[in-house]
Amino acid sequence: MTQEILFSTFTISILHGIIPGHWLPVVALKNQFGWSAGVTLRVAVMAASAHAISTIVLGLVLAWAGSWMAVQVEVFTHWVMPVGLILLGIFFMYQHYTHHHFHLSHEEDVTHASRRRVVGLLALMMFLSPCLEIEAFFVLAGAEGWKFVGIVAAMYGLLSVLGITLWVALAQTGLQRLNWHRIEHNAGLISGGVLVLTGIFSFFAH
User: Fold this and answer.
1) Fewer beta carbons within 10 angstroms: which end of the chain, N or C?
2) Whether the predicted model's global pTM rises above the 0.85 cut
3) pLDDT tens for residues 30-62?
4) Spatial contact of 23 and 170, defined as CB atoms under 8 Å apart
5) Cβ-Cβ contacts under 8 Å for 199 (sequence gap 6 or more)
């Protein structure tokens, strides 16, 4: 079961970094303010870290709930979580048809705002939009113990920050001209598929 959780966490963390809504705002700000590549990457790390921190904090709360439920309800790890993961995966595969992500238009008047204020606003927006796809695996990890929760949190945090920062770096070379909206749709479908498969695997693993 732990191997399935780690593989799914790895997969979704990698896909998470591809989603344009997480790195295009940084690229847009770079173009507005004329930042150097170094400044842009530092802003990307700050925004990605804020996003990862809120996701992990929420995940720890859910992991505690998962640990408590696993002890109190014997059927939890055999029925409730697999069914929950499958339903959540179906939800995310459906959600991509109606999703909305933050996009910063070049026409928005941010040139008169201080860099610190704009970067702080971006970090706050990222903090207030945790990655919900990964939270189900924190619940599963909670049933395996806090040491394993720490491994899941570290893996997600590292891969998420590195992934978002990497795509900001690549975007500075002109990759933002690609059809990232289509890629974002596919990432949502794959994330949902990973959740469904993990639910199926977790059912037969117990």
Assistant:
1) C
2) no
3) 766 778 888 889 999 999 999 999 999 999 998
4) no
5) 81, 82, 83, 84, 85, 86, 88, 89
Torsion 11-12-18-23 (CA) sign: negative
Are 63 and 139 a contacting pair, CB within 8 Å? yes
149 exposure class (CB count in 10 Å sphere: 0-12, 13-18, 19+):
buried
Q: What share of the chain is helix, strand, coil (3-state, %, to 5)?
A: 80, 0, 20
Cβ within 8 Å of residue 20, ≥6 positions away: 101, 180, 181, 183, 184
Amino acid occupying residue 44 = A
pLDDT digits (tens, 9 = 90+) for 134-187: 888 898 888 888 999 999 999 999 999 999 999 888 887 765 455 555 555 556
